[in-house]
Amino acid sequence: MQQLAIFASGGGSNARKIMEYFNDNPDVRVALVISNKKTAPVLEIAGSHGIPTLVIDRAMFYETEELLGILTQHRIDFIALAGFLWLIPPYLVGAYKGRMVNIHPALLPKYGGKGMYGHHVHEAVKAAGETETGLTIHFVNAEYDEGAIVFQARCPVDPADTPEIIAAKVLALEHRHYPEVLAGLLAGSR
Ligand code: GRF
User: Fold this and answer.
1) Cβ 72 vs Cβ 96: under 8 Å
2) What per-residue confidence (pLDDT) applies to 178?
3) pTM for the whole thing?
4) Which of 10, 25, 31, 66 has minimal Cβ neighbours within 10 Å of its Cβ?
5) What mean pLDDT, rounded, does the chain reach?
6) 171 lines ligand 1 (CB under 6 A)
7) Where are the domains of the chain?
8) Superfamily per CATH, domain 2-188
9) Is 82 close to ligand 1, i.e. is its CB under 6 Å away?
10) Percent residues over pLDDT 90 in the chain
């Protein structure tokens, strides 16, 4: 049994898909959900699946390595970031090297880096007149959106698409692919 932790700051729709996908899976269990916001909807979603949750604050995350002990206690093998907005500190990048991925709502290396999240990404894609966009799943290193790319999927951008429409297309693509890509990575790391 492989134990997966999800880190999420926001709505948690990807986290929900991942929890649903691995529900009753004999090989993978979502064993912990971590958020930096105590009001994040993802915490309730985790609760409804009976998954333990943890809310972290900046001081604990950046000034201590307490989280490593907690991840070890929960026997976490792999971490999926799903809309987690804080930069991952070096101690955590080091401990989970090759065992932590992020999903980004664009075709990296374009439209990534600090400040490129949520609607900012889709507005930039629209402003640049791109004819396609998509998602990127990549390993996490100490820089925003720069780790090795594991998987990308594309979708067309029509000239009439607003940033909101682009966002909806990309999110649907994320929901379709993220759980399956995680399943493949976890199977490969067994
Ligand atoms: C997704 O678009 C993901 O690519 C990005 O943040 C968004 C999270 O959405 N990193 P949700 O919280 O999973 O609904």
Assistant:
1) no
2) 98
3) 0.96
4) 66
5) 96
6) yes
7) 2-188
8) Formyl transferase, N-terminal domain (3.40.50.170)
9) yes
10) 94
